[in-house]
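2024-03-11 09:14:02 DEBUG pipeline.ingest accepted 1 chain
2024-03-11 09:14:02 DEBUG pipeline.ingest length=177
2024-03-11 09:14:03 DEBUG pipeline.predict start
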Amino acid sequence: MQAGDLIASDSRHAAPSDAELDRAWQVLDEVMDPEVPVVSVTDLGIVREINWQEQQLRVVITPTYSGCPATEFIEQTISQALSEAGFGNPIMVQQLTPAWTTDWLNQRGRDRLEAYGIAPPVGSASKRTLLGEDPVVRCPHCKSEHTEQLSEFGSTACKALYRCIDCREPFDYFKCI
């Protein structure tokens, strides 16, 4: 027998179960985005798929945008969390098509953003702004819809800076992409 050869018992392992996939999703529910640490990678919808590839967990992710500086860190964090949970060395796959959209952000993520003080995306990603239609952005502090945009860019490129006219508090708005 040579190094790397399979022994007979190795080829008879049972196929991984759906319960293990559910557990992997639960692990990823706890992996937070490094730029907005109150939303998980599953809240954001960047984890597109988890499946088994020859007894090894395969994770498909779509970065929020192709030049996102946190993508490599997010992949490493996902891989580390799954490894620590007993999933070995998962296969990480980047899928750029279709491009990520804020439409993939789940309701829990939207609620978490607002509780953190960031207004979640309004509606769905559309081309309304090209037609001069600004979204009505609700203040995450006092819930007023009487707000104004101060800058197209906030603390990161995916956010705009707004201010509430009623409570006068500035806040980030997670733009529809």
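2024-03-11 09:14:41 DEBUG pipeline.report DSSP finds four helices and seven strands in the chain.
2024-03-11 09:14:41 DEBUG pipeline.predict end
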